[in-house]
TrEMBL record:
Coiled coil: none annotated. The keyword Signal applies. The keyword Protein biosynthesis does not apply. Residues 1-29 form the signal peptide. PROSITE patterns: CYTC (PS51007). Keywords: Heme, Iron, Metal-binding, Signal. This is Cytochrome c. Pfam families: Cytochrome_CBB3 (PF13442). It comes from Sedimenticola thiotaurini. InterPro entries: Cyt_c-like_dom, Cyt_c-like_dom_sf. Gene3D superfamilies: Cytochrome c-like domain. GO terms for molecular function: electron transfer activity; heme binding; metal ion binding. Residues 34-147, 163-238 form the Cytochrome c domain.
């Protein structure tokens, strides 16, 4: 009987250890996803995320002959140089008013986070005196591990999401409609969601990572195909109020 009790105790200890280990791994994964999503909103508009004034001096890397050369508020945003699809001059920003001629960040996908932090901190990027160590780490995590393969989910030529509209409607009504309404016309302070699909890459980025300094949550924990399905449904929503 004593041997049986000891065996049961050992089994319980092992099981408890496995459960605690699983919980620890799960928490680490959640923290990583949260940090990556925060990096995504920093990529969007970092100064709004950390609640500081936007820079007033143009970014050193932004070309002087491009549209936003004198607009520091815009040309210090990572997305302005590298695009919502992360491909810079080779992606959606290959032409038009946002064309900067600069490369994307897709080449840094999978790179060492410390190397990216070093690159972001030093001139000519020059974020070392603007972002904290935690901010830089989150941004670097996004660059290294958080880029969605936009061409997998959005057709580049037609801008059409590669998603299922019917599934997207169910997801939208469950996840998004509470804030945006089933017709996508809420809140009143923002344009109708249907009108935003001229730039599906931006919408995809914000669905996955959230909106800087706003209550919109990140849906990064969900399969990216769900986000594409949601975008497919948004294309059916009204473009005007």
């Amino acid at each position: 009987m004593k041997i049986q009790v000891n065996a049961n105790s050992a089994c319980c200890s092992i099981l408890t250890g496995l459960i605690l280990m699983t919980l620890a791994v799960s928490l680490q994964a959640e923290e990583l996803e949260s940090a990556i999503a925060r990096g995504g909103v920093l990529y969007d508009k970092w100064y709004k995320v950390i609640d500081v004034d936007a820079p007033t001096t143009p970014h050193a890397l932004y070309p002087a002959d491009k549209k936003y050369a004198k607009d520091a508020k815009n040309n210090w945003r990572c997305k302005e140089c590298h695009g919502w699809d992360y491909q810079g001059k080779d992606g959606a920003y290959s032409k038009g008013k946002h064309h900067s001629g600069l490369v994307g960040i897709n080449g840094a996908n999978g790179k060492d986070v410390k190397e990216i932090v070093a690159l972001l901190s030093a001139p000519p990027h020059g974020y070392g005196d603007k972002l904290s160590a935690a901010d830089l780490n989150d941004l670097a995590l996004f660059v290294s591990q958080g880029q969605a393969d936009m061409d997998r989910y959005i057709d580049r030529a037609s801008k059409a999401p590669k998603g299922d509209q019917a599934k997207g409607e169910a997801y939208f009504n469950t996840i998004c409609a509470k804030c945006h309404g089933k017709d996508g016309l809420q809140p009143k302070e923002m344009p109708p969601l249907g009108s935003l699909m001229g730039n599906p890459w931006e919408v995809m980025h914000k669905v996955l990572n959230g909106q800087p300094a706003e209550s919109m949550p990140s849906l990064r924990a969900l399969d990216h195909q769900i986000a594409a399905d949601i975008l497919a449904h948004i294309t059916t929503l009204p473009k005007e109020r």
